[in-house]
Amino acid sequence: MSTDLDDPRFTAVxxxxxxxxxxxNRFAAQFEEHRLSAVEFEVLMRLARSPGHRLRMTDLxxxxxxxxxxxxxxxxxxxxxxxxxxxxxxxxxxxxYAVITPAxxxxxxxxxxxxxxxxxxxxxxxxxxxxxxGMLESLRTIRDAVNPCATAGSAPDEAASAx
Length: 163
Prior knowledge:
CATH superfamily: Winged helix-like DNA-binding domain superfamily/Winged helix DNA-binding domain
Organism: Paractinoplanes rishiriensis
Shape: globular
Strand order of the largest sheet: 1-3-2
GO molecular function: DNA-binding transcription factor activity
Order of helices and strands: HHEHHEEHHH
Domain HTH marR-type: 1-144
Low-confidence stretches: 157-163
Protein name: MarR family transcriptional regulator
Number of helices: 7
InterPro entries: HTH_MarR-typ, MarR/SlyA-like, WH-like_DNA-bd_sf, WH_DNA-bd_sf
């Protein structure tokens, strides 16, 4: 039995991958101008947008493209650079938080205007408001199915109960 190479599932996944690659390539040069890697930007954004501007290291791994050991390495490097710091978890000695520092927030503030301009030009600006709404809903549905940990630690009550 031969596989149909014109199967629309190949097209859907291929278009998604090509779009992601194209966008990340456009963003990479701008991040580099601000002495950040794409993953460091992702970590700063996740922390800045989280309750208390912090996340457990395991939750940060679940919300990024990094493994638990990868998050440890990135956070260690960012800690040395003064962009984040670690805080011990008072309720669980085995766990720690990554917290964005004022220097990390400042670096993020420097990057965001240019980043948002690129997002507008190459992503949001390519879609009608209705297309954007539908795409966001679809991406959340898929994300929740393939990565249910992606929102771990992002609810305000979770951060409050963990503190």
